[in-house]
Amino acid sequence: MVTQQSAKTLICVVGARPNFMKIAPVIRALREHSHSLNVVLIHTGQHYDEAMKAQFFEQLGIPEPDKDLEVGAGSQTEQTAEIMKRFEREVDEYQPVAVLVVGDVTSTLATALVAAKKHIPVIHVEAGLRSRDRQMPEEINRVLTDQLSDRLYITERSAEQNLQAEGISSDRVVFVGNVMIDTLHHNLPHAVKPQQTIPGAQWSIIEQAAGKFCLLTLHRPSNVDHPEILEKLLDALGAIAQQIPVVFPVHPRTKGKIEAFGFTEKLKLPGIICLEPLGYLQMLGMMAHAKLVMTDSGGVQEETTALGVPCITLRENTERPITITEGSNTIVGRDTEKLKQLVSEILNSGGKQGRIPEYWDGKAAERIAADLIDWLM
Asked: Is residue 251 annotated as part of the catalytic site, yes or no?
């Protein structure tokens, strides 16, 4: 247990866009609930698109980082090493009482490793999620970060079972709910309507479809790095676009692979609306107004469940099973025939609506702040 005398600075870490949505409500709650705790935000620079970072920080109301480590591009190994080297200097300077990490990106594990090696308590927000797929780099990050953590905040009760199976004592685990949903609730009134995001000529395609559209996000290496898999998905996309317009904000990585494999023409079919990557408020508006969403993103699975929008996950597994058992999510993997069939069913019957899971009420960060301040003090 940390003593009151040492409770001075808490370092919070972000490194990639998924982290931004998770850290915003946590920092807001910590600063509202405790004036004796100095909350320092460090951005590792793992995602190095400065314009996108600035857009997310502004839209989400995240204060500018106290430090930006500017790690930049590199393999996962290179990024991990560089983050650890640069973060260690910040830990030595700030002498924090604890380090708080969120999610499952490279920065999450790298900074947790530094803290643990220096015997500084690690706090993990969004702990215990498991896909059981060790081919996913995020799964390795999740498992190892949880083993290093002293306080683990979970989004769903099944996460505690995962942690217990890995030998983590239940007295280190606290069920608080989902901070991603805090951010969604906080920002939903400010979400940008799709017609304000989609150019006029392309919006007319959606108007002709009575305002209905499907939203697609696609970025995981397992889907976009293999030409045969990506081609099948893009061919299915063309078939689906004949039934309903598909809005596709193209991730830079995905765009690069499509161009490298010579698939650019497949996106020029009628009904496929390609956009540049969107800010959070634009993306939130898209999800809220979509007839259905197709994705390989974990966060989108959660957000669509909170919004009650049918979601089709283009992966063989999910680390967020509650989005299937209680939410609006269905997994089809890479079975494009099953994908097209499910889209047709949703268009005909309305699709799976699900219900809101326990503690997905917009107050998870408040629970974290209350517990964490008490634990630290």
From this structure: no
**What is the CA 110 to chain-centroid distance, rounded?**
18
342: which residues sit within 8 A by CB, 6+ positions away? Answer: 312, 330, 332
DSSP 152: E
For the entire predicted model, the pTM comes to 0.91
Confidence at residue 8, expressed as pLDDT on a 0 to 100 scale: 84
Tokens 């643990």, located at residue: 116
The pLDDT, as a whole number, for residue 49 is 61
pLDDT at 1: 42
**What does DSSP say about strands 173-175 and 98-102: parallel, antiparallel, or unpaired?**
unpaired
CB 248 within 8 A of CB 344: no
Catalytic-role residue among 219, 226, 251, 289:
219
Are 107 and 153 contacting, i.e. CB atoms less than 8 angstroms apart? no
Residue with tokens 């989108």: 300
User: Which residues does the chain have with pLDDT short of 50?
Assistant: 1-7
Backbone angles phi, psi at 274, to 5 degrees: -90, 135
Q: Give the other-Cβ count within 10 Å of 262's Cβ.
A: 10
CA atoms within 13 A on the CB side of 247: 31
